[in-house]
Design brief:
By secondary structure, the protein is an alpha+beta fold. Helices cover about 45% and strands about 15% of the residues. The strands form three sheets. It has a four-stranded mixed beta sheet, with no helix packed on it. The longest helix has 21 residues. It is globular, with a radius of gyration of 20 Å. The termini are far apart. The C terminus is likely disordered.
Amino acid sequence: MLTKHTRIAELAKQDKGLKFTSIAHLLTQIALYEAFVCLRKDASAGVDGVTYAEYEVDAWENIRKLHDRLQNGQYRAQPLRRVYIPKEDGRQRPISIPSLEDKIVQMATVDLLNAIYEQDFLECSFGFRPGRSAQEALDEIGRVICRRPISMVLEADISSYFDTIVRDLLVEMIEKRVTDGSILRLIGKWIHIGVIEDGRLLISETGTGQGQVISPLLANIYLHHVLDEWFEKEVKPRLKGEAYEIRYADDCAPRAQRGPKGPRSVQLPN
């Protein structure tokens, strides 16, 4: 499996315009089992109530049945369970908890898609990426501030980012790289699934539930196109001096060095 993912990564790196039309077959029983063992064992259960320990009792048979449903088109994503956790400012952050098997399929899909998108994502992006961390983002901020003659800092945090992603645009962005119908249908199930809160099924028109395993990758794909590439291709060439963007998920800090004619203001995209 690692070899196949490595080959996909090589193809994605060689041709930035290549579209992957047939990769769903790599969601094998082994890939699903490896995804299962990578899940948090103490994570809260979804609406199905199934815990890691319960699933583990007969894991291989459960995985085999899950794989069969994926193969014959009988896999159905289950609604998310909504819980709230306190934020530092006293407000409540909504978290959407998937069922265990949805976590498994999403984890395997993330591993597969990472082989492609890790070749596309820019160096400025640190959040929710293999081998990258919040500490590395902080280190990069420190490096830029301490070693470059910075004269302007703009800190941005997108309010309710995961809940406000425009789904149609997200799918269009994904299709620039992945056109495998099976993968796109899976993503469609996950982003359109409803949320159970206080016994009611709530359906929204935007967003991808924060708490789903797939959501951080989808969020990075979206901001890669609307922010990172925009900053790199549109903003930086217009500035008189140097400019840097450092992003951790939806938190970013573009920084500009004073040029010969002083810093210029930049209008963020709508």
